[in-house]
C-alpha cells in the first residue's frame, strides 16, 4: 500500500520539484518528547515533503502567473499549500491530513518539527550538537541543520502528508545519508549555520548536484514584504 501511495505522490509532486519521503509516525514520536508527538497511532503512514531547487521554476513561477490576483500572503507558502491540497484529489477514498511547516499550535509550538521528520524519513541528515564529540561552543546555543545528500542545504522542508486510515507496520526505516561524516566538517557546518547563515556557505558544505539559481537566491535573500515586487505582484 505504501508503495502505491508513494508512486502516486511522486508522479504528482515530482514534476513540481517536490520530493515525498515516507515514514511511520512512531519513528518520529520515538525521538521526541510527548509535547511534540503527532496525534496518530505509531504505524500511521506519513510523508515529509521537501522542495528542491527546481521548485522555483517548475511550481512557483507558473503558480504566480496563473494565480496572480489571488496571492495575498507568502507566495511560496501559498504555492505549496495549493499543490499539497490538490494531492487530496488524487486519493478520493482516503483521508489525507496536511500540515505545513509554518503552522503553529495554540501553544505557539510548531505543528511538527520539520528537521526531525526529514531525518527519520531518511530524506536528509539532521546534524546537531550531539553529533560532535569534542564540542567547542561552551554555553552558546547551537541550532542543528539538515543536509540533503544531493542538494546540501539548497532545499526546504515544506510539510507533511498523513494518511490516518493506512497503517504500515512492516515499513522499514531508511537511514539518512551521513554526508558530512567527519568531526571537522560537522563543526564547520554548525559554525557556518549558526554564526554566518546569511551568506549561505553552510549550504555548500558538501559537493551538491544542484543549487538555487541566482534569481532564486535573490528572491529568498529579499525581505518577505518586498518579494511580491520581485514576482511582479502588488503587496
From TrEMBL:
Organism domain of life: Eukaryota
GO molecular function: cobalamin binding; cyanocobalamin reductase (cyanide-eliminating) (NADP+) activity; demethylase activity; FAD binding
Subcellular location: Cytoplasm
Annotated keywords: Cobalamin, Cobalt, Cytoplasm, FAD, Flavoprotein, FMN, NADP, Oxidoreductase
Cofactor: FAD; FMN
GO terms, biological process: cobalamin metabolic process
Recorded catalytic activity of this chain's protein: apo-[alkylcobalamin reductase] + an R-cob(III)alamin + glutathione = cob(I)alamin-[alkylcobalamin reductase] + an S-substituted glutathione + H(+); apo-[alkylcobalamin reductase] + adenosylcob(III)alamin + glutathione = S-adenosylglutathione + cob(I)alamin-[alkylcobalamin reductase] + H(+); apo-[alkylcobalamin reductase] + methylcob(III)alamin + glutathione = S-methyl glutathione + cob(I)alamin-[alkylcobalamin reductase] + H(+); 2 cob(II)alamin-[cyanocobalamin reductase] + 2 hydrogen cyanide + NADP(+) = 2 cyanocob(III)alamin + 2 apo-[cyanocobalamin reductase] + NADPH + H(+)
GO CC terms: cytoplasm
Transmembrane segments: none
EC number: 1.16.1.6, 2.5.1.151
Major localization listed first in the record, in broad terms: cytoplasm
Transcription as UniProt keyword: no
Family named by the database record: Belongs to the MMACHC family.
PANTHER family reported in the protein's UniProt record: CYANOCOBALAMIN REDUCTASE _ ALKYLCOBALAMIN DEALKYLASE (PTHR31457:SF2), METHYLMALONIC ACIDURIA AND HOMOCYSTINURIA TYPE C PROTEIN (PTHR31457)
Protein name: Cyanocobalamin reductase / alkylcobalamin dealkylase
Naturally occurring in which organism (per UniProt): Erythrocercus mccallii
Gene: Mmachc
Amino acid at each position: 500500500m505504501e508503495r502505491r501511495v508513494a508512486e502516486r505522490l511522486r508522479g504528482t509532486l515530482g514534476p513540481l520539484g517536490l520530493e515525498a519521503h515516507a515514514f511511520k509516525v512512531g519513528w518520529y514520536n520515538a525521538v521526541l518528547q510527548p509535547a511534540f508527538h503527532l496525534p496518530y497511532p505509531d504505524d500511521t503512514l506519513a510523508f515529509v515533503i521537501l522542495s528542491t531547487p527546481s521548485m522555483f521554476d517548475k511550481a512557483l513561477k507558473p503558480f504566480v502567473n496563473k494565480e496572480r490576483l489571488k496571492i495575498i500572503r507568502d507566495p511560496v507558502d501559498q504555492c505549496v499549500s495549493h499543490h499539497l491540497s490538490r494531492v487530496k484529489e488524487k486519493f478520493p477514498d482516503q483521508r489525507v491530513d496536511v500540515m505545513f511547516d509554518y503552522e503553529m499550535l495554540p501553544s505557539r509550538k510548531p505543528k511538527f518539527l520539520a528537521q526531525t521528520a526529514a531525518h527519520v524519513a531518511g530524506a536528509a541528515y539532521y546534524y546537531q550538537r550531539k553529533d560532535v564529540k569534542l564540542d567547542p561552543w561552551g554555553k552558546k546555543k547551537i541550532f542543528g541543520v539538515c543536509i540533503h545528500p544531493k542538494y546540501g542545504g539548497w532545499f526546504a522542508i515544506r510539510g507533511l502528508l498523513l494518511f490516518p486510515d493506512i497503517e504500515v507496520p512492516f515499513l522499514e526505516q531508511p537511514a539518512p545519508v551521513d554526508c558530512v561524516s567527519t568531526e571537522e566538517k560537522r563543526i564547520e557546518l554548525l559554525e557556518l549555520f549558526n554564526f554566518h547563515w546569511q551568506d549561505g556557505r553552510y549550504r555548500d558544505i558538501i559537493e551538491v548536484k544542484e543549487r538555487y539559481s541566482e534569481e532564486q537566491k535573490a528572491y529568498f535573500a529579499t525581505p518577505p514584504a518586498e518579494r511580491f515586487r520581485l514576482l511582479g505582484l502588488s503587496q
